[in-house]
């Protein structure tokens, strides 16, 4: 897990969130953003699950994680607003959609929650590594 976190920014900006129970992420596999590695690490079980998929599917999994997973941990998460933003980019390619939604959530995290647990830069990786 530590190695994945250390290299998570190598091909672009990943989507990494964390809760009291787990870390979830989508890490670009290639600089073009065509393929993404999904990671999930449960703290209690110390178990890492990974799989690789195309950008469009990764975007769908990102939205599902925000709507169904993260919303259980972040009380004030404005899922409706996030879904509304995702509608504005629905006609873009999978590569564009995932990059744009990640940048939106990082750059405007406060618009969606007062405490969105998202990694915003490489500097935030150390905090995640300490949880592993």
Sheet having the most strands = 4 strands, antiparallel
Alpha plus pi helix count:
6
From the spread of the alpha carbons, the general shape counts as globular
Task: Give the spatial strand order of the biggest sheet.
Answer: 1-2-3-4
Cα-based radius of gyration, to the nearest Å: 14 Å
Specify the structural class.
alpha+beta
Unreliable stretches: none
> Strand share of the residues?
15-25%
The figure for the number of domains is 1
Query: What's the SSE pattern?
Result: HEEEEHHHHH
Write the layout of secondary structure elements.
Blueprint (H helix, E strand, L loop, with lengths): L1 H5 L8 E4 L3 E7 L6 E8 L4 E8 H15 L9 H10 L5 H14 L1 H4 L12 H7 L1
Antiparallel strand pairs: 1-2, 2-3, 3-4
Helix pairs in contact: 2-4
Short description:
By secondary structure, the protein is α+β, with helices and mostly antiparallel strands.
Detailed description of the structure:
There is one protein chain. The protein is α+β, with helices and mostly antiparallel strands. The chain has one domain (2-131). The protein is built from six helices and four strands. The protein has a four-stranded antiparallel sheet with strand order 1-2-3-4. It starts with a helix and ends with a helix. The relative contact order is 0.20.
Question: What structural keywords apply?
Answer:
132 residues, alpha+beta, 4-stranded antiparallel β-sheet, 6 helices, 4 strands, 42% helix, globular
């Amino acid at each position: 897990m530590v190695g994945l976190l250390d290299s998570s920014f190598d091909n672009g900006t990943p989507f990494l969130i964390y809760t009291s129970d787990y870390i979830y992420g989508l890490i670009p596999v290639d600089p073009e953003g065509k393929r993404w590695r999904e990671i999930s690490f449960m703290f209690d079980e110390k178990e890492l699950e990974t799989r690789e998929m195309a950008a469009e599917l990764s975007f769908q999994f990102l939205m599902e994680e925000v709507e169904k997973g993260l919303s259980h941990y972040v009380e004030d998460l404005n899922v409706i607003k996030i879904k509304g933003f995702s509608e504005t980019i629905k006609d873009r390619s999978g590569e564009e959609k995932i990059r744009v939604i990640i940048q939106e959530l990082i750059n405007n995290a406060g618009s969606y929650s007062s405490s969105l647990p998202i990694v915003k830069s490489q500097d935030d990786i150390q905090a995640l590594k300490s949880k592993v």
